[in-house]
Amino acid sequence: MLPSQRALFDMPRDVCFLNAAAWSPLPLASQEAGRAAMARKGQPWKLPDGFQSAQYERTRKAAAALIGADPDDVALISSVGYGVSTAGKVLPIPRGSRVIVLENDHTSPVLEWIGRAEAGGFTVDTVKQPGDGDWTSAVLDTIERTGAAPVALASISSVHWSDGGALDLTRIRDALKKQGAALLVDATHDAGVRPIDVKTLDPDFLIFPTYKWVLGPYGRAFLYVAKRHQNGVPLEQTAAARKAVNAEDTIYFRDTSYRDDARRYDMGERDHFITMEMAAIGMEMMAGWGNDAIVERLSMLTGKLADGLGNLGVGLLDPKLRAPHILCVSFPKGMAPDLAKRLAAENVHAAPRLGRLRISPHVYNDEQDVDRFVDVFRKVAV
């Protein structure tokens, strides 16, 4: 099991931060890299040739390693929403078909299809949030519902942000393939923690940002594109997406045909070398620790939290149905609207989410944090 990595973060001992699912703190190494990068931007004449390309290829490689992808199959983008919009432009949705989404899922994998549905002649079929927390069965029932229109796409998160429910993507993918349907995965709350291998799973698209679980900055995200979709038109028209459009060449538009890999979908102005290295550092740290060691540690922490909270009259998902790193607490009589503020007043931090309290530890947390949380929770919530 991975030991606590608290020493790698600027986290005082009296801070009990259990809110990685909202945003993670930056490791000290990433903060230092960001300061150094700001200095480089202050004196850009000192940048060596090829510096930018080396930065984003390092980051592309780090992102690919977290999901078992080849770097050629990963695009550098700014957000999950950007990636879903790219998929919306690339993937045809037949008229009369369905796009499946999850109730109360993040906006990114949902709103793109709601916005396209009327003009595209398809419907958005929302899987209701299951009372028992079994998202996988609910999605499978929706896919296989008798008499329903054919499914074109499931655009879903692999872990639901509001209750911590974990979806079995392999079973869902198999059901979709029987209908010839595509799978888009928002892996925001999964990449870097639970193992993901896109070569085995074979999604059509998989997207994740860096500012939560992979310890990075805002504005950096990554889009895996299956090779069968690497012949589409990008969301933006950029020189980098073309085979030979180069201001340093003697002929600017030497070859305007698109690249033959996922780099054609890279965002414009991808040379964010201030935050690109910061993103790489966080992902490389996560990969170095390994999924199994991380999951073992976070499962231990959420398990101890569940044990400590279990006799306080609150509701918790079955461990078989929830992600190992997110524990959501429900309240039979409703959650006090100011509960998160009461906790924060004691320097204990978790997030209110749709009537639940979401607790999300990361590698910087330890057993002392768990004990502190349970003690404070008992004092302010019971």
What does this structure look like?
The chain is α/β, with parallel strands linked by helices. Helix content is 36%, strand content 16%. The protein has eleven helices and 15 strands. The strands form four sheets. A seven-stranded mixed sheet has the order 2-8-7-6-5-3-4, sandwiched between helices. A four-stranded antiparallel sheet has the order 11-12-15-14, covered by helices on one side. Helix 1 runs antiparallel to helix 8 and helix 3 packs parallel to helix 4 (108-120). The chain is globular, with a radius of gyration of 22 Å.
The gyration radius over C-alpha positions equals 22 Å
Tell me about the largest β-sheet: 7 strands, mixed
**Looking at the structure, what is the overall shape?**
globular
Q: Round the mean pLDDT to the nearest integer and report it.
A: 96
User: Can you list the strand order of the major beta sheet?
Assistant: 2-8-7-6-5-3-4
Record field, number of beta strands: 15
Measured by DSSP, the beta-strand proportion falls in: 15-25%
Going by helix content, strand content and strand pairing, the class is: alpha/beta
- The run of helices and strands is EHHEHEHEHEHEHEEEEHHEEHEEEH
Rounded to the nearest angstrom, the distance between the terminal CA atoms is 33 Å
The tally of helices reads: 11
| Residue windows where pLDDT falls under 50 for at least 5 positions | none
The share of residues in helices is 25-40%
